[in-house]
């Protein structure tokens, strides 16, 4: 069904759809917030992060890591951000519970500074009743029932981690979108006294999580526009890691292929 839906987003005639997607944005935010040097080092290398991680967790050479093992490593990374339990991780990866628990334990051991940051963040929200994104946007919690209700306490801890990372990603994306809009307004003002046609060669169509999808006209300025948008997204005043953006293009959302 997802593939069928993707084909419902065709580009205009003489236009192409182009996706600009932040690479591992939430993990980079977590690495910045936790100041975990091991996590940072893995994210700034040119190797496939999840293959490298799977090899480390499973104690196997990278060239022997299967697609399934890579997906398991990816799932545990994002599972931590979304509050996934060991039982859910085992079910999603079709591991038995002992294998899943060992996989998760190895992950925490691999990144001890990040692990301690998550512990400290949970303690902070239970003591203070709020957390903040990197731009200071707060989320407040009601602490009145948490002392006696372990389920509420656990949910609050999961929501705190989730908010800090995802709200920070949202902060970064909103700044990038505003920056791109200002640049495009200067390049292609909506003023018929300046421009003979109201049709722009570039439009923002969709924003999904860490991804922006534009319609861009195929003409002599296409590459210029691609580079301007990517550069605007990669400008980084937020975290102490780079913010690389991957681009894909195609006639519809489903047919997109990577471009340099």
From TrEMBL:
SMART domains, alphabetized: POLAc
For this protein, the record's InterPro entries field holds: DNA-dir_DNA_pol_A_palm_dom, DNA/RNA_pol_sf, DNA_polymerase_A
- An MF annotation (GO) of this entry: DNA-directed DNA polymerase activity
Any GO BP annotation: DNA-templated DNA replication
Q: What transmembrane ranges does the database entry give?
A: none
Q: Taking every annotated instance into account, which residue ranges of this chain make up the domain DNA-directed DNA polymerase family A palm?
A: 15-220
Tell me the domain of life: Eukaryota
Give the protein name, as stated in the record: DNA-directed DNA polymerase family A palm domain-containing protein
- Organism source for this protein? Rotaria magnacalcarata
Question: Highest lineage ranks of the organism?
Answer: Eukaryota, Metazoa, Spiralia, Gnathifera, Rotifera
């Amino acid at each position: 069904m997802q593939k069928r839906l993707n084909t419902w987003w065709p580009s205009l005639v003489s236009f192409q759809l182009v996706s600009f997607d932040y690479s591992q944005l939430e993990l980079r935010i977590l690495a910045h917030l936790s100041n975990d040097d091991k996590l940072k080092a893995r994210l700034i290398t040119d190797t496939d992060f999840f293959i490298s991680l799977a090899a480390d967790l499973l104690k196997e050479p990278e060239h022997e890591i299967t697609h399934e093992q890579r997906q398991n490593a990816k799932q545990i990374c994002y599972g931590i951000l979304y509050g996934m339990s060991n039982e859910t991780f085992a079910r999603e990866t079709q591991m038995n519970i002992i294998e899943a628990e060992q996989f998760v334990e190895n992950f925490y051991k691999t990144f001890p500074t990040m692990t301690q940051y998550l512990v400290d963040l949970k303690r902070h929200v239970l003591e203070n009743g709020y957390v903040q994104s990197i731009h200071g946007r707060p989320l407040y919690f009601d602490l009145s029932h948490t002392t006696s209700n372990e389920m509420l306490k656990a949910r609050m801890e999961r929501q705190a981690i989730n908010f800090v990372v995802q709200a920070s990603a949202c902060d970064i994306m909103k700044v990038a979108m505003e920056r791109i809009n200002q640049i495009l307004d200067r390049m292609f003002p909506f003023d018929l006294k300046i421009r003979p046609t109201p049709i722009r060669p570039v439009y923002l169509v969709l924003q999904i999580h860490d991804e922006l999808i534009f319609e861009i006209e195929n003409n002599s300025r296409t590459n210029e526009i691609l580079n301007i948008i990517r550069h605007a997204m990669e400008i980084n005043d937020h975290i102490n890691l780079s913010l690389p953006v991957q681009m894909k293009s195609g006639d519809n959302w489903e047919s997109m292929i990577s471009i340099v």
